[in-house]
């Protein structure tokens, strides 16, 4: 029989002769189930009303008002302890729990549902047997059977939950209990009656905090010496359905492409239940409670009750983003434990599903032909081309890309997309000329950034014509060439002709006259004939003028037509000035000092410069004016093309001397500058130069020569 229990389900059934022989004299009535763990072989289906096993509960006082409760509502236990199914059922999980209660006691039994190959392995594990099923290796005097305690028990406490039995009665012997939950944190949960061996719990347990306790029981004599044990006592906390399923991984957002086939997976939602995963207390089932909005169908989606996968259940035609009220759906999803039965606890979460757009609608111009008017010579946006597109504005399936496909050979037009409105902004980028063409016709196409889906194509509405009318404007005359260049020598006579300019009027159909005027002439050197445009000089052109830069003088002129109002054009003239030798060289420095007792009589190094250009500058020629008298006082030596050195030929008395020097450039004809070098002869003591005593003495070369001549005549009167 598939629904029969295993041949042996407990120690008492497994070894009846051995246990009765060993413990018959010591067994006392223990309130509760006489057997707490049962094993049922998993059938293909539990049959309705077919007994599965008998449970024996005894409160040791008559079982007044005995009542049984089963964790799975598909099963029931009669008052006589017989367990059977209320209907045909196949999937019941891994375990059933039966809670029994009377006025005097209550207890919990666990029924494990196992496969055929699990039966003996499970028994062997539970009862710690080795080798074949037989007598344990070592007979112990303490019998500490596992204790099962439901979590969340109600007061009063302490509450008896089991009993430890000792086969040998010894005067003064005491039970002692230790381990986590007794004398280790969390302390004080369990206690044992040291005389009777009754084990009690002092407060309600929480399986989700601690599911199992491993304690040790030992027997001591009056002195505290251990006389038996320790023996392991396992206490397991039986799960109660006290935790609701929780969705912890939110927010839950899924995406599905519009037009997706029926059954397309959108997302997965999974909840967590802190109860025992091996029981129905954590067996979750999922369900969609509410869908918002409810159109085009109130059941757009389905959730797999076991996996939590949300899939589409409508046809691809209904999953059309452009026909929906909104592309966003919100689902209230419920997770219920106990396998989804009505007694299960529930938890809910909201799933947001976004219908993603695909490019299934091409952009279309709002009209086939657009008109634009622009004045010649003007650039900028001239018309905005409008299009419609039913796709999502936040995607490349909506954003438009415009292209001019005909009518723009000179590249005078460009078109760009307005990112806010998606309109095509048609611009003139090269000024148009009315006299060349008064009308332009452009053919423009529009596409999306993203490609269209394969079964959609761009149609005639994705192209449009733009008719552009160019308005005539009175344009200013144009100089040819512009800028104008000419080369002239500086210092040409006043009234000389520099250049005759040429300006034409682009408005060839208007037959207008042109007059000329000076616009900018920084140095005031030029004039222009207003009729024929001849430019002449009114002053000397000077290459060395501050208005000349890099030998070029720049002026501007106006050409004004006779239109109403008149239009003006500007022309620029660059005059390159050639140099002539019109600047004498300059000498530096013009003052020098020397000590009256100086040993180094090299007084000063002179330099020369010239504003003119080569070859009208260096090499320079340095010379002293002619010296008269019995002896020469100084000389000048050329050092290079631009410098020379003045040297004293002897020490002089303290005084001021003026030395006449001439410097000549290399121009043709050359120019000479005659100047004087002022020389101060000073007294020098202790590295200090004192020139104050020389202030009253100003001696020139001529004075020295006159004095020497007078002295010579007195000495030789006969001459």
TrEMBL record:
Keyword Membrane: yes
GO cellular component assignments: adherens junction; catenin complex; cell surface; cytoplasm; side of membrane
Ranges of residues in domain Cadherin: 174-247, 248-365, 366-479, 480-587, 586-697
SUPFAM superfamilies named among the record's database cross-references: Cadherin-like (SSF49313)
Chief location bin: membrane
UniProt key word Manganese: no
A Pfam family the protein falls into: Cadherin_pro
GO BP term (any one): cell morphogenesis
Compartments (UniProt record): Cell membrane; Cytoplasm
Known role: Cadherins are calcium-dependent cell adhesion proteins. They preferentially interact with themselves in a homophilic manner in connecting cells; cadherins may thus contribute to the sorting of heterogeneous cell types. May act as a negative regulator of neural cell growth.
Subunit structure: By contrast to classical cadherins, homodimerization in trans is not mediated by cadherin EC1 domain strand-swapping, but instead through a homophilic adhesive interface which joins two elongated EC1-EC2 domains through a region near their Ca2+-binding sites to form a tetrahedral, X-like shape.
UniProt-listed PANTHER family: CADHERIN-13, CADHERIN-23
Name the UniProt record assigns to this protein: Cadherin-13
């Amino acid at each position: 029989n598939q629904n029969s229990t295993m041949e042996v389900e407990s120690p008492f059934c497994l070894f009846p002769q051995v246990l009765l022989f060993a413990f018959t004299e010591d067994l006392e009535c223990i309130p509760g189930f006489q057997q707490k763990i049962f094993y049922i072989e998993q059938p293909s289906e539990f049959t309705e009303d077919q007994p599965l096993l008998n449970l024996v509960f005894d409160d040791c006082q008559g079982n007044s008002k005995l009542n049984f409760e089963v964790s799975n509502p598909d099963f029931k236990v009669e008052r006589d302890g017989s367990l059977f199914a209320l209907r045909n059922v196949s999937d019941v999980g891994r375990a059933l729990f039966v809670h029994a209660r009377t006025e005097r006691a209550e207890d919990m039994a666990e029924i494990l549902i196992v496969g055929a190959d699990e039966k003996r392995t499970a028994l062997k594990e539970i009862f710690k047997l080795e080798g074949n099923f037989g007598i344990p290796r070592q007979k112990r005097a303490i019998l500490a059977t596992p204790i099962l305690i439901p979590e969340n028990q109600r007061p009063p406490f302490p509450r008896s939950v089991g009993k430890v039995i000792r086969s040998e009665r010894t005067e003064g012997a005491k039970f002692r209990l230790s381990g986590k939950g007794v004398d280790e944190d969390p302390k004080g949960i369990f206690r044992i009656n040291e005389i009777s061996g009754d084990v009690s719990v002092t407060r309600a347990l929480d399986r989700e905090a601690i599911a199992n306790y491993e304690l040790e029981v030992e027997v001591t004599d009056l002195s505290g010496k251990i006389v038996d044990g320790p023996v392991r006592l396992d206490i397991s906390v039986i799960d109660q359905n006290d935790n609701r399923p929780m969705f912890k991984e939110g927010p839950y957002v899924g995406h599905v492409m519009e037009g997706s086939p029926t059954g397309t997976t959108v997302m997965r939602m999974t909840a967590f239940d802190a109860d025992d995963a091996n029981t129905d207390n954590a067996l979750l089932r999922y369900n969609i409670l509410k869908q918002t909005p409810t159109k085009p169908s109130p059941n757009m989606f389905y959730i797999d009750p076991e996996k939590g996968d949300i899939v589409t259940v409508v046809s691809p035609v209904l999953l059309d983003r452009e026909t929906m009220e909104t592309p966003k759906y919100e689902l209230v999803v419920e997770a219920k434990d106990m396998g989804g039965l009505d007694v299960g606890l529930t938890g809910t979460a909201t799933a947001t599903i976004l219908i993603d757009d695909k490019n299934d609608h091409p952009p279309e111009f709002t009209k086939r032909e657009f008109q634009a008017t622009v004045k010649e010579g003007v650039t900028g946006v001239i018309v905005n081309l409008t299009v419609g597109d039913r796709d999502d504005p936040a995607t490349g399936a909506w954003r438009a890309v415009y292209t001019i496909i005909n009518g723009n050979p000179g590249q005078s037009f460009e078109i760009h997309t307005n990112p806010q409105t998606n309109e095509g902004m048609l611009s003139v980028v090269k000024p148009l000329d009315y006299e060349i063409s008064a009308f332009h016709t452009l053919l423009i196409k529009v596409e999306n950034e993203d490609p269209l889906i394969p079964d959609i194509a761009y149609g005639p509405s994705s192209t449009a014509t733009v008719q552009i009318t160019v308005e005539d404007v009175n344009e200013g005359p144009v100089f040819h060439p512009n800028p104008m260049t000419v080369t002239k020598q500086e210092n040409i006579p006043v009234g000389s002709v520099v250049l005759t300019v040429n300006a034409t009027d682009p408005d060839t159909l208007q037959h207008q006259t042109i007059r000329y005027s000076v616009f900018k002439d920084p140095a005031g050197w030029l004039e222009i004939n207003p009729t024929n445009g001849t430019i002449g000089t009114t002053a000397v052109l000077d290459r060395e003028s501050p208005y000349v830069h890099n030998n070029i003088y720049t002026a501007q002129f106006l050409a004004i037509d006779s239109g109403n109002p008149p239009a003006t054009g500007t022309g620029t003239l660059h005059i390159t000035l050639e140099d002539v030798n019109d600047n004498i060289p300059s000498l530096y420095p013009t003052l020098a000092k020397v000590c009256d007792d100086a040993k180094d009589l090299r007084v000063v190094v002179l330099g020369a410069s010239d504003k003119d250009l080569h070859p009208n500058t260096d090499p320079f020629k340095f010379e002293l004016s002619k010296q008269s008298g019995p002896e020469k006082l100084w000389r000048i030596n050329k050092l290079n093309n631009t410098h020379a050195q003045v040297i004293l030929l002897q020490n002089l008395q303290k005084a001021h001397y003026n030395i006449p020097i001439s410097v000549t450039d290399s121009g043709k004809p050359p120019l000479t500058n005659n100047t004087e070098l002022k020389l101060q002869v000073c007294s020098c003591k202790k590295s200090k130069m004192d020139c104050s005593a020389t202030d009253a003495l100003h001696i020139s070369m001529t004075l020295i020569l006159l004095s020497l001549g007078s002295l010579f005549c007195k000495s030789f009167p006969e001459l």
